[in-house]
Design brief:
6-stranded mixed beta sheet, globular, 14 helices, 40% helix, single chain, 457 residues, alpha/beta
Length: 457
């Protein structure tokens, strides 16, 4: 039987080894999910809601041990692991509060004996290839509404967050979700490829653009529902009338939280020339104040890089920026010792010839570029193949709305950043992906609309 070895990215040590799936076991789990889905879909919604309520209670009861496991396998600081688990609770609450209304039948016409209704039926079997950077958020954005809508789920957690994925499945099963309705498949890319070969009704993926394109190509002939969240190169503009100190401290957190390993991390900053120097001074001071260290320590802010190959990406972006004339303000190198560590890194005097300002970094590195005016800022913000999030810091809400209305991004922020709400859809433009999760639209995305034409005799 194949196995998956799980290492702590902060130390390099082997922390666990678990049985992995192969093509045969993936096929068996998919068949079991297909068989059990009609019964789960026919289960009264109140019972499905009650199961998720019990799942929520289990998260609360085990938050400390779940956070410790997450930190050990992905290198996230323990305080941020707890933040993720605590932040999951209002998302679950949203799904619990809104699902019944979101998937209820709706009468849209009723006249002279003819009624027209829109129904919502489950997709069927939903495959979820999830991410390691926020496994509770990203996984449950799919798993919870999919199960509540009556689907069976084939869940592949990232191989870098497999223990957390197994905990999610364990807690859902203990809460009353049938084993066959919530199947977990464990392994690396070969297991994901095997999952794509199964008879599924929807595929929900969060990860890199390159992998997303491969998934879309593999599923093209199957004509299944496809949702791809593929990251971004998220820009923010600090306008002339902004508070430089407030913006700098907020954006330093937005760029470096979770060691910069967030889909919506701030990855490019444009600052009006009148504020540039004051902003940079405060930004660099804030970043230098972030504690790098043992992820299990309560006061650690910067943890380990989860995937060792990402270190080479960061090295290459640093070398390219230096070669093209950027000024290194802090960091710019790997940190010594075992594990995967990179110093928080800030560059100024950057431009769009540099990889740092064009390609996703997914690490604790940021470029800050001076701009002359609003139009230049918007032009540069839109000079990207991605379009996940974007933000503006200004005291003028009307101007913020006008500028953000011109930016190609699925989520936009005024005087905030790196924020996701269950009440709002999570989607992207361009190479940031297709489809959406979250919001009531993100509940309905796990259903098929069914048109009813009803004529009274």
């Amino acid at each position: 039987m194949p196995t998956l070895k799980i290492h702590n990215p902060a130390t390099g040590q082997l922390i666990d080894e678990r049985p992995a799936d192969d093509a045969a076991s993936v096929a068996a789990k998919a068949a079991a999910a297909r068989t059990t889905q009609p019964a789960w879909g026919a289960t009264p919604l109140r019972e499905r809601l009650a199961a998720i309520e019990r799942f929520r209670a289990a998260i609360v009861a085990e938050v400390d041990s779940l956070a410790a496991t997450l930190t050990q396998e992905v290198g996230k600081p323990i305080s941020q692991s707890r933040n993720e688990l605590n932040g999951l609770l209002p998302r679950i609450d949203f799904f619990l509060a809104q699902t019944e209304k979101a998937i209820a039948d709706q009468t849209v016409f009723d006249d002279n004996g003819m009624r027209e209704r829109i129904g919502h039926v489950p997709l069927g079997v939903v495959a979820n290839i999830s991410a390691w950077n926020y496994p509770y958020f990203v996984g449950c954005n799919v798993i919870v509404p999919a199960l509540l809508a009556g689907n069976a789920v084939l869940y592949k957690p990232s191989e870098f967050a497999a223990l957390t994925g197994l905990h999610i499945a364990r807690l859902l099963h203990a809460a009353g979700v049938p084993q066959d309705a919530m199947q977990t498949v464990i392994g690396a890319g070969d297991v994901g490829s095997a999952l794509l070969q199964q008879r599924i009704d929807g595929l929900f993926f969060t990860g890199s653009h390159a992998t997303g394109v491969k998934i879309a190509s593999a599923l093209a002939s199957k004509l299944v529902k496809l949702q791809l969240e593929l990251g971004g190169k998220d820009p923010t503009y600090v306008r002339a009338d902004a508070d430089a100190k407030v913006a700098a401290e907020s954006l330093a957190d937005g760029a470096m939280y979770n060691t910069g390993q967030s889909c919506c991390s701030v990855e490019r900053i444009y600052v009006h020339e009148s504020l540039h120097d004051a902003f940079v001074e405060r930004f660099v001071a804030t970043v230098k104040g972030f504690k790098v260290g043992d992820p299990m320590a309560a006061d650690t802010y910067i943890g380990a890089i989860t995937r060792a190959p990402q270190l080479a990406v960061l090295d290459a972006q640093v070398a390219d920026a230096k070669a093209k004339g950027a000024t290194l303000r802090t960091g710019g190198e790997r940190l010594p010792g075992p594990g995967n560590w990179y110093a928080p890194t800030v560059f100024t005097h950057v431009n769009h010839t540099m990889e740092l300002m064009r390609e996703e970094s997914f690490g604790p590195i940021i470029g800050i570029q001076k701009v002359r005016n609003d139009d230049e800022a918007v032009r540069l913000m839109n000079d990207t193949r991605y379009g996940l999030t974007a933000g503006v810091y200004t005291n003028d809400e009307a101007k913020a709305r006008e500028l953000l209305g011109r930016v190609n991004a699925g989520s936009v922020y005024w005087n905030c950043c790196d924020r996701v709400s269950p009440r709002l859809p999570w989607s992207g433009y361009g190479d940031s992906g297709i489809g959406l999760t979250l919001s009531t639209a993100g509940i309905q995305t796990f259903t098929r609309p069914k048109a009813w034409h009803l004529r009274s005799p």
